[in-house]
Automatic annotation (TrEMBL):
Domain (PiggyBac transposable element-derived protein) ranges: 1-74
Region named Disordered: 1-21
Pfam families: DDE_Tnp_1_7
Taxonomy of the source species: Eukaryota, Metazoa, Ecdysozoa, Arthropoda, Hexapoda
Name of the molecule in the record: PiggyBac transposable element-derived protein domain-containing protein
Species whose genome carries this gene: Periplaneta americana (American cockroach)
PANTHER family linked: DUAL SPECIFICITY PHOSPHATASE 26, PIGGYBAC TRANSPOSABLE ELEMENT-DERIVED PROTEIN 4
InterPro entries named in the record: PGBD
Organism domain of life: Eukaryota
Signal sequence coordinates: none
Length: 75
């Protein structure tokens, strides 16, 4: 578990990104074919691609105005 407390000593802006938080949390179960479920704050196309490389899948909600959503997925 990670408690979000805004900027913490010893962290970089990149390490606080939602995608990086999820990747840290799933590190112990990578490469064993698990599914990750996220809410709209954590779900992104980039995260799906990162998890797929680790033999994982993702189910999550996503607002249709997020960056990098392929046009064919918006309708």
């Amino acid at each position: 578990m990670e408690v979000y407390a805004d900027k913490q000593e010893g962290t970089t802006p990149e390490s606080r990104e939602p995608r990086e938080v999820v990747k840290r949390h799933v590190a112990p179960i990578k490469d064993i074919g698990r599914n990750v479920t996220t809410d709209r704050f954590y779900t992104s196309v980039e995260l799906v691609e990162d998890l797929y490389e680790r033999k994982m899948t993702l189910v999550g909600t996503m607002k249709n105005n997020r960056k990098h959503i392929p046009e064919e997925l918006k309708p």
